Amino acid sequence: MKIAQIAPLMESVPPKLYGGTERIVAYIADELVRQGHEVTLFASADSATSAELVPICETALRLDSQVQDTLPHHLVLLDEVRRRAAEFDILHFHIDLLHGPLVRTLGVPTVTTLHGRLDLPDLQPYYRTFGDLPLVSISNDQRRPLPPVNWAGTVHHGLPRDLLTPTFEPKGDYLAFLGRISPEKRPDRAIAIAAAAGMKLRIAAKIDKADQRYWDDVIAPMVRAYPDIEFVGEIGEAQKADFLGNARALLFPIDWPEPFGLVMIEAMACATPTIAFRCGSVPEVIDEGESGFIVDNVEEAVEAVGRLDGLDRRRVRQTFDRRFTAERMVDDYLSIYRELSGVPAQSRPMRLGADKVDLPIMA
Q1: Structural domain span for residue 109
Q2: For the whole model, what pTM was predicted?
């Protein structure tokens, strides 16, 4: 099958540091190539992929100090996709909104994976207008705010099986927080949990400009007040296995409808359990008492810290191997591609992976 993957340009594919969407696009593209498909990736020129790369801009836009407006660059991306659309059996978009008016004119099957939150009121008129656009959710919970649309399926994220090495006997005696410093990610809760549990907390996180005040006014004073809190800063892929693998647990104390939460399965791949708040996708990702604990408040999270020794880290990794590999993710996407109207019939009889997990298809 000839497949185009259309990535956002904010980060390279995969990103050098923080960036969930671009990381997943990288894993999809490389696994499709591994399974024998002809894959073309539309992304920034500093991307690294086994697919054919169509470079749209020289570097990831977030890392280019000369970029003041990202919209023109994404319009260039769309024009290049339009120009080459007839070369492909399927166009797989990961850029949320901009391509909506374009895809109706292309004459090529498309699917769009929605990677972000969908509970924003401004999205309602868009999805009422483009209700025929085939969409993929990354969790069933992510779908709840939208009006009736053309859901093609739900595909949980996956990671390459050998990306992160599991640690069954961690060397560190600390809890970990990994992600982004923002009010909805609630690093303040993570600090409160660690302090109440008498545990060291290590925070590896990105601080966006929009969240700088939250860091300055709320989180930085808490970090200074508790001597057992270490702020590591933003880390890359190469550092995650050590950071997560040597932690007693990952804290995921979110306070928003998290569409997926990639860090939970990154911890799982490292054999590290997660203590997560019951929001968004969490109940779909964490198997209670097997890959972690799901809690409703700080007090329950502190109590869960005391139960970590009852979890078998080998079973945590086995949960990852069973449910969250890139092979399973791509097999799910291939099933969706084959069901789309207009996909060539000869592309349909293809291998499905042994760890295939069927997720509900909701119309």
Answers
A1: 2-160+325-347
A2: 0.91
